[in-house]
Amino acid sequence: MQISRRKKVIGKKIVGIFLTAAFVMAGGISVLAQGQAVQGVVRVKKADGTESPAAGVTVEAYRTDTGRGSLPAAITNDKGEFSWASFPSGHVYALSVSGPGVGPRIQPNVKGGMTQLVIIVDEGAGEKLTEAEVREVASLAGLSEAELKALQAKQQVEIEKYNAEKARIEDTAKVVNAALQAGNAAFNSKPPQYEVAIAKYDEGIAAQPDFAGSAPVLLNNRGLAFQRRAVENYNAAAKNTDATARLAAMATVRKDFADAMDSFHRSYTILQTSESVKTVSDPKMIEGERARALSIAVETIGYMAQVQQVDESVLDKANELTEAYLSSGADRAAKERAMVAIGDVHRSAGDMDRAVAAYRKALETAPKNVDAMAGIGLSLVNSGYESDSREQLQEGSNYLNQFINSAPDNHKFKSDAKELVEAIKASHKINPQPVRRN
After folding, report:
1. Do 398 and 355 share a domain, yes or no?
2. Which of 383, 378, 382, 381 is nearest to 394 (CA)?
3. Residue 248's domain spans which residues?
4. Do residues 53 and 112 share a domain?
5. For 136-193, how does the pLDDT look when each residue is reduced to its tens digit (9 = 90+)?
């Protein structure tokens, strides 16, 4: 996974033109008459000091005695010559020169009747100025020498500030990429060094905690490291015959799952709300990391539900990320699993109201989902016993009976469901009824 850099910022493009004598004034006679011609030549000055005609470059004319207006562009011929048959009388223009192999130049204060213009351009990359930049440069032509020096000094400060910020960003990017590479190496080692990986990802996150081009990648990797460690620790703890040690190990499993969910939630939040998203050069990277955050988060929710190790602190984040996942482009089966898993997570955490709501949503989409039937039945029965609600016990018994009739015999909840239905019959004289659909 590559980390995206910020978009390059071309700082003070017009400053360079101004500081390198952009205003090359040529000789000529200005005659105030109706519709006078304008003619000239563009020459390119090479690195060795020689000059040659600049053929095929574009010369644009922007009116500068007002804030708007322009003439059709002229293209130089093989001799570097350009011309307009008629400039309106009394109008003042700035000529902007650009083209392949040359740097941009501005010729201000051009009027009809000027027929001996000579514009010298340097070799360059063919950069073209916008109309706004042309007008800004042209506006400097009337400044005094003192004013120009003051402006140059101010612009130099801005350039130095920009360069310092650019250097800071580049140095930070080195730290971030080094942390990413080291973290990935630890994660992929045999056996995985999750603690080292997490520490390295943390270093990278700390360097740019809110930058959408790096933090989500690191946060998603960090979350995955916590998730994998939680699963491995759970599997080891499940085999431990020491009840006290197993209980302590499960506490660390719950914390790792919670830290994983926090990482995915932070990643998703940055990608949804950070202004830095606009500065990332690769939009596909943003979409990819957003999808990755949601996908691994839902996977983690599934693991938490499966092993029933849920810290209450994750519930709101798990809900938010599941809802976002259900609104994504995931396939129907995956979304169905996610709806059941979020119900299982709430049930495991003892939040029966939200568990029931999640299972209902799953059954609306997939009425034959036996896991959702079992989940809503168990949740309603739990709530019914806690609140001594016959209505909840009845509905829970109904769903459990539907589950018993639909689920395969090897389903993990089938024997428990049968026992519960019989217990409700005995304690509350409630017999299951067919489930009624709204």
Report:
1. yes
2. 381
3. 167-227+234-297
4. yes
5. 888 887 777 787 788 778 888 888 888 888 888 888 889 999 999 999 999 999 999 9
